[in-house]
Amino acid sequence: MTASTVAIIGAGAVGAGTAWYLAKHGHQVMLIDPKLDQPINRSGALPGTTASLGVLMGHVFRRSSGRAWRLRQHSMTLWPEWVAELSSQEHPLKLNTPLIQLASSEAEATLMKQLTEQRQHLGLELISPNSNPCMGRSWPNRQHGGLISHQDGYLDPIALQKCLRAALQEQRVQQIQEPVVSLERNSSVEDKQWRLQLAGGTNLNQEAVVICAALGSEALLEPLGHSLPMTPVLGQVLDLELISDQHNWSGWPAVLVSHGINLIPHGPNQIWIGATLEPGVQPIASHLKAMQHLEGDAPAWLESATVKDQWHGLRARPVERPAPLLEKLEPGLIVATGHYRNGVLLAPASAAWVKEQLTNETRS
């Protein structure tokens, strides 16, 4: 395969992961995002990847066929390889497992039972009603049981982005800290069919462009005649400090999911609780309070917790199309965005898909 020059617009988990993956396979890559010069931390309103909790729900996905299932399975295969390559002494990265999903009704418990019977080979097991292996803090909502997935869990998105930044430097990926204001077809430069204009006035000519810009993607695509509408969905996270408990998190999984809300212990008497539940762009205080109450199922230790920090971010959800948007729109114009709640989970599979499109284009 002849290496191509590729511009990737958007440096979240998908964009940065794709840039690293393509560079590793011989492409000449530039990554463009105005936030590349900003420190990677959490405070206030954040980009999607930074705001997320990096929950990986690949094997507990309810469907067992179709594109969404195949993408999840591909990513779950690739993630251990990515972690092994990206992790270093200076920037450690770890897959935190397992994940437990608690049923909120008898009907949901029945579905979980069927799922565990079908996927024992993927590490799914049933949890019987009222099970509580915890020596200290009890689980919420245990009366219907649930399931445990030994390979699902979470990756810390902050650690992931730091690892990717370091890996991009090692692969000599050019990082440009400016917004792209327009994308045009280019007939004046041989083989470089796309021209990107940056906010500072610079024009870049590239053989291929990969758009990973989430909600910023529409403005770049519409002038080219491509309509891929997306709507913002708000995710919120609380970082809670709990009353000291000598047993702390004994018996707890890496991730516990109740009513679609993720609970992630991340240190002694510390827990993140978060979900992507709200339409629109502004957080609603009452929704945040309801999240901490777990729809009435929160145990006393959670109700009494103190809010240490909180943040929110927007996810891009495709309108009337399944997430994510993985499409080759024209020769050299590829879209890999609109991952909604699964940007971290699907980053490896998305990167592999982009590489395949570029490979097929070179062969044709």
Offer a quick outline of the entry.
The chain has about 375 residues and is of the alpha/beta class.
**β content, as a range?**
25-35%
Strand order of the largest sheet: 3-18-14-17-16-15-5-7-6
Classify the helix fraction into a percent range. 25-40%
The radius of gyration is 21 Å
Low-confidence stretches: none
CATH C-level category of the largest domain = Alpha Beta
The count of DSSP E runs of length 2 or more, i.e. the number of strands, is 20
Structural description of this entry:
- The chain has nine helices and 20 strands.
- Helix 1 runs parallel beside helix 5.
- It is of the alpha/beta class.
- Strand 1, helix 1 and strand 2 form a beta-alpha-beta unit.
- Helices cover 28% and strands 30% of the residues.
- It folds into two domains: 193 residues, FAD/NAD(P)-binding domain, CATH 3.50.50.60; 140 residues, D-Amino Acid Oxidase, Chain A, domain 2 (2-Layer Sandwich).
- The mean pLDDT is 93.
